[in-house]
Amino acid sequence: MKVYLFILTLFFCSITFAQTSISGNVVDEKNQPIPGASIKIVGEAIGAVTDFNGNFSLTTQKKPPFSVEVSSIGFSTKTLEINANNQKISVVLSDEETRLDEIVVSASRAPERIRESPVTIERMSVKEIKKSASVTFYDGLENLKEVQMNTSSMSFKSINTRGFATVANTRFMQLVDGMDNSSPLLNFVLGNLIGVSEIDVQSVELLPGASSALYGANAFNGILFMTSKSPFTDEGVSAYAKVGQTSQEAAGNNLYYDYGIRVAKAFTPHFAAKANFTFMNGTDWYATDYRDRDLVNNVGIDRTDPNYNGINVYGDVVSTNIKSVASGLLNAGAITPAQFTVFNAILPNQNVSRTGYNEVDITDNKVQNAKIDFSFHVRPWATSSAEWAKDIEFIWQSKFGFGNTVYQGANRYYLNGFQMSQHKFEVTSKNFFLRGYVTSEDGGNSYDMEFTAVNINRVWKPDNTWFGQYAATYVQSTLGGATPDQAHAAARNVADTGRFLPGSAEYKNAFNQVTADPDVLTGSKLVDNSKIYHSDANYNFRDIIKIAEIQIGGSYRKYDLNSFGRIYTDTPENGPIDYDEYGAYVQLQKKFLQDKFKFTGSVRYDKSQNFDGNYSPRVSLVFSPDEQKRHNFRGSFQTGFRNPSTQDQYIGFNVGNAVLIGSAADNLDRYSEVRPVSTATGQAFAGGESVVMTGQNAYFNSYTATSVQQFAALAGSDPIAASALLKRTNVDLVKPETVQAFELGYRGQFEKLSYDLNGYYNIYNDFIGNLNVVAPLYGTAQDAPDPTAGPTNAGTQSLHALQTGNIRAYQLYTNTDIEIISLGFGAGVSYKIYKDFEIGANYNYAEFDFDQEKDPSFEAGFNTPKHRVKGSLSNDKLFPNFGFNVSARWNSEYLWQSTMVDGMISEATVIDAQINYGIPKLKSVLKVGATNIGGKEYQQVLGAGAIGQQFFVGITINQ
After folding, report:
1. What is the spatial distance between Cα 542 and Cα 806, in angstroms, rounded to a whole number?
2. What is the mean pLDDT of residues 652-674?
3. Which of 359, 431, 545, 786 is most buried (CB neighbours < 10 A)?
4. Which residues contact 504 (CB under 8 A, 6 or more apart)?
5. Where are the alpha helices (DSSP H) in 125-241?
6. Are 393 and 376 spatial neighbours (Cβ–Cβ below 8 Å)?
């Protein structure tokens, strides 16, 4: 309220000055209007943008004479003198074939021409956004060099640059108007769910490498900057609407629509405001991969296998050793000792899983996203004669994102009614900014699909009852002469009798009950009210210190986790989880030898509450040998680091077949659960029918999952040799990971050909990853325990636990001791082949290497194709008011590794195209487009739906 009153006071107290008005039009050399051209008063922050017909009007309180600068991407810049009020000007801009003069900010936190950038940078301009053949501009980012998308849902796409990323890409950062878009709970970006509207985008810049030296710990493998338009320079009402169809073999043909509106007004030179609203609705890509999740050992396994666990089938994760069920029946009095002898002799020593539900039965597959944002901008001294004061701007900005989408981590999660908001107050000028913002989220009615199915099954029939009926029927069928396969089929048929069928009233009631319950033992609701509080500042001394350009800055962040114990260990008994981190940096830039060389050096120090501090230095040199600066060579070295995420530290998430436990020192005792012990012998070893398991068991009394799998494969034939394969887990608690990044590049221009080449070599140490382990419910994990040592030996007891299924699987968060190398190179070209026809192409090679034998259980999760090729052909002026764009991309097959499923993703070729027609009288552009024209469905994430086709027609008004 105080901020609101402050803004109103500034607004109403503004002094009215005599105004100077100018107007005119901007055209190219063919006398065609140039929409979106920028007209700016030299030395002022006041400006305007041309409309669809190239017309503009501008009002200022500055008295003539003064100068205005007219510019547009792809054209030369012109400066004109204004000598009178109400002066009309006509401006003709010449084509500028070079892209080297485009202005970028992100590489050095200061405006510079892209040719001077010390590191590789990719840029998507407003012009490129308008001609994109993708359905949204965010989808179009995939056509940039170095970008690989990981698509979890139609509205949830995660950007991957330089590898080591799943959908949950905690190594990549996304800033919208300076605000980190990462989820407070999950620590990674949720695509464009709370990003920016495509009619409000001013610029998009991508740094694909490490950027920790300026942007802190999370800018480890890349950072995306999206900047929105200012209401001072981009006024008016603009809108867009798209309608079309999605087409997928599993989902069929479904309606898709997306629309938005932007309203902006500069009421005076001192006060401006804007608001945006967008809404998208459609049917998501159905996820129907029914292969078994173990794509390495269970190739070809289908639902006929007793222990089937399908990728997009949920509830079948509940599994038990069917032989051990006999002991439970005996202890419950369901069978006599004599019957137990028969059961124990007939029941096979193998696991059996419950019957699951398909994902299409667990979710309505609807995807929606609504975004609302508004901002108030105040320039109190806009008409001041003091140069240092007139561009100072106060900004209050609020952003809200709502919707339904699917996120994939260890399981698949339906984010239903998910909400996220950001509120920022910022003071900015050409030489400094100071901002603070808060990000908060609400899980709404979100739920875990796996546990929804698990607990619907349990509402219908408890696990013990189901497995008991299965075991009894198996024995009865075998005694009747059935083969093992026939006995399994009969047992499942009897145990599933009366099962709730999707669509039935019983199923709907159970579904509603389970998804409203946050208790993992009985429900699946995801609860989240987490927050991030962040502030950062920067000052550039360029107007004070002339010998070099020096910047200083810093940031502070506080995490406030609140999942009510559903995801993290923040149960009411344990109390809340909050921790903070801070950092500071300094940068120096200097040009020398007639500006042929540009040196940049920076260093940043960051400290997290739970870890030691880290320094991140960066040095770079740009060399431009020719006078026109059309040939620019660059080289850089920098170190980066990434603090363990909130998940790495404090997760305590039961995903059914395993528990994910973060390794902050105080987290190991925060997670505990009671586990039942089967078999009489096991209960004797455990000292009761159940045991309490904590994170201490997971990290300090467990076997590596790899060695347990090797043990299980051999235990039936040679138990002594099998036991020798077991390895006790030996890991340290998680700590920050580091990277040393070397990069060389060359950006140049030769006549109509623009090109950019780059290569990089990264050395990762203390790489954060996951380790799957198996903890015995009793006994002590040992390297190669002795199976002949007797029942009092703790190692022998642990063997008994492994053999009878008295175990608990965990996923740990730790660092690997091995050094990981990643390297790659890229090449991008753009060429005007004939008149206004332009082709673009880029290629990326990516590879990584490490010694797997030194850490057999480590999964790198590189998840990046070795080869990627992208190309486009476009003409904005094929005929009067008519243009088109065709883009294509291809990637080689690659290995996908994640906590949910590992396997190969096939190569893919995707072609998108659009044609557009301008309607000058309506100040509108009509666009018709299609994506994946070839129609062959492809995946980018194992477990997510195969991506089909989209056809759309859209209109944009007054952009």
Report:
1. 67
2. 91
3. 359
4. none
5. 126-131, 137-140, 212-215
6. no
Name the token pair of 700. 């300090």
- pLDDT (0 to 100) of residue 521: 86
The per-residue DSSP string of 100-156 comes to: TT-EE-TTTTS-EEGGG-SS--EEE-HHHHHH--SSSHHHHGGGSTT-EEEEEETTE
Decide if pLDDT at 341 tops 50.
yes
Q: Alpha-carbon dihedral of residues 894, 897, 901, 906, nearest 10 degrees?
A: -10
Report percent pLDDT > 70 for the chain: 97
SS3 779: coil
Contact 355, 316 (CB under 8 A): yes
Query: What digits encode the pLDDT tens for the residues 142-174?
Result: 999 999 999 999 999 999 999 999 998 989 999
Give the SS3 label for residue 696.
helix
Token pair listed for 76: 């030369």
DSSP string, 633-677: EEEEEEEEEEPPPHHHHHBEEE-SS-EEE---GGGTTT-EEEEE-
Q: How many CA atoms lie within 13 A of 119 on its CB side?
A: 28
Cα(324)–Cα(343) distance, integer angstroms:
10
Q: For 842-895, how does the pLDDT look when each residue is reduced to its tens digit (9 = 90+)?
A: 999 999 999 988 887 788 899 999 999 999 999 988 998 999 999 999 999 999
Residue type, 583: G
Q: pTM, whole model, 2 decimals?
A: 0.89
- pLDDT tens digits along 225-246: 999 999 998 999 999 999 999 9
Cα separations (Å) of 229 from 106, 143, 351, 381? 16, 23, 59, 21
Between the CA of residue 171 and those of 112, 435, 595, 830, what are the distances in Å?
26, 23, 35, 30
CA separation for the pair 190, 182 (Å, rounded): 7
Residue 938: how many other CB atoms lie within 10 Å: 17
Q: Which of 41-50, 236-245, 671-680, 709-718 has the highest mean pLDDT?
A: 236-245
Distance, in Å, from the CA atom of 956 to the CA atom of 923, rounded to the nearest integer, reads: 9
Residue 47 pLDDT grade (very low, low, confident, very high; cuts 50, 70, 90): confident
**Phi and psi at residue 142, to the nearest 5°:** -65, -15
The span from the CA of 661 to the CA of 808, in Å, is 12
Number of helical H runs and strand E runs in the chain: 17, 52
Residue with tokens 């170095």: 146
- Determine contact, residues 52/920, Cβ cutoff 8 Å: yes
DSSP secondary structure letter of residue 853: G
How does 461-495 read in b/e, with b if 16+ C-beta sit within 10 Å? beeeebbbbbbbbbbebbeeebeeeebbbbbbebb
Q: Measured in whole angstroms, how far is the alpha carbon of residue 857 from the centre of its chain?
A: 25
Angle between helices 463-479 and 449-460 (to 10 degrees): 70
Element (H, E) at 472: helix 463-479
Torsions phi, psi for 7 (to 5 deg): -65, -45
CA distance 535 to 425: 10
| Sign of the dihedral through C-alpha 736, 737, 742, 746 | negative
- pLDDT by residue (tens digit) across 571-626? 888 988 999 999 999 999 999 999 999 999 999 999 999 999 999 999 999 999 99
Beta bridge mates, 424: 397, 437
pLDDT of residue 750 exceeding 60, the answer is yes
Question: How high does pLDDT run on average in the chain?
Answer: 91
Mean pLDDT of 917-939: 94
CA neighbor of 779 nearest in space, from 769, 766, 792: 792
